[in-house]
Specification:
By secondary structure, the chain is mainly alpha-helical. The protein is 71% helix and 0% strand.
Length: 185
């Protein structure tokens, strides 16, 4: 994120979180930690399965199914925290010499798109999960209901949608402050 040179009284976008933003940040951090722990458990399970397969001809039954389902959930856990912390990939080559107002408005537009995308993917994940539940689809080896694994991704995508919309609002508010402070100067 490009630093925005404003006076000291101006809120910085990364730190301008209000009460809702702090709740959102805490929730996204907790979900990201949960996702990280799931990945650690998946690595441990994979090691046990590989060693069991090679040394004892006894792999963990259904390890690939568990890996696929749990990795989908765990991956969805990181997006919101990444966006709230400004960890998105940005190409600022074209905005390197733009005014702070333009940069804030472009960041607001980008965050709005993230919010819209998060909303769409949340909706589709829910609809897909209900469709899979209605079909009664289960995993091949373990017989686990697949819809549960898909529904577990929804909280991460919902937080991404909220994070995108919230950051769009924060950046927009910051751009309004920047434009009034530039106009007053």
């Amino acid at each position: 994120m490009q630093d925005i040179p404003l006076d000291d009284a101006a809120p910085k976008p990364a730190y301008a979180f209000g009460p809702f933003g702090h709740i959102l940040l805490g929730s996204s951090k907790a979900l990201a930690i949960a996702g990280g722990l799931v990945f650690v458990l998946l690595v441990a399970m994979s090691i046990v399965s590989i060693v069991g397969r090679k040394l004892f001809s006894a792999p963990v039954s259904g390890d690939m199914e568990v890996l696929q389902m749990a990795a989908a959930f765990a991956s969805a856990c990181f997006f919101a925290h990444c966006h709230l912390q400004g960890g998105d990939v940005k190409v600022d080559f074209f905005t390197a010499h733009a005014s702070p107002v333009v940069v804030c408005r472009l960041d607001a537009m980008g965050s709005l798109l993230v919010g819209i995308f998060g909303s769409l993917i949340t909706w589709r994940a829910c609809m897909g999960a209900w469709s899979i539940k209605a079909a009664g689809e289960t995993s091949m080896i373990l017989g686990w209901p697949v819809w549960i694994a898909q529904m577990l991704m929804v909280p991460g995508f919902l937080l991404l949608a909220l994070a995108g919309l919230y950051k769009a609002w924060v950046y927009w508010q910051h751009s309004l402050y920047a434009s009034t402070s530039q106009g007053a100067a």
